What does this fold into?
Amino acid sequence: QVQLQESGPGLVKPSETLSLTCSVSGDSIRGYHWNWVRQSPGKGLEWLGYIYYSGSTSYNPSIKSRVTISVDTSKNQFSLSLVSVTASDTAVYFCVRGNRPTPGGYWGRGILVTVSS
Amino acid sequence: DIQLTQSPSSLSASVGDRVTITCQASQDINKFLNWFQQKPGKAPKLLIYDASNLDAGVPARFSGSGSGTHFTLTISSLQPEDFATYFCQQFDNLPITFGQGTRLDIK
It folds into this structure.
């Protein structure tokens, strides 16, 4: 059974970098697209970007200058880095598998990240 | 960005009712639309992909239709576990975008 698990700090200071990792179990990371989606009360669901297992990426232009998604096939993990965070980056962050270039049927439980000093 | 507008934003219904939720896209997205169900404190769950295809394990009372700019999600006979928030999501054009959600409550 495919499972995704987000990990990382739940509290990040303004102007610092938010870093999250998604660990995938039950299947190989190869062959799929791996997305990050966040959800905040003010903005609803927001797609941040995805990475194909080979390393090609696509990002939401709204955060493109601040975001990097990377993959480590040897560890069956992928990661999100978001620099220069502000309070508006406070949200629950989900990692999501896609059989195609879109979020699909496998989601992590989500991790709440709060940006506050 | 493609805007997805769901209607209604909220809906009250009873067990056994037939319910339809609409998703209107700001431009033609062919059939590149997914529907998700989300319960409080949980991740969204994929119900329908490519506008009308039921994901594995999803009950047959759920159905989706539409293409172009107008899409619908129908629940033929509401069950207690169906009370949740529903989102549409398009992947025809980047960035991928979601509708604002439709909250389905018990009447």
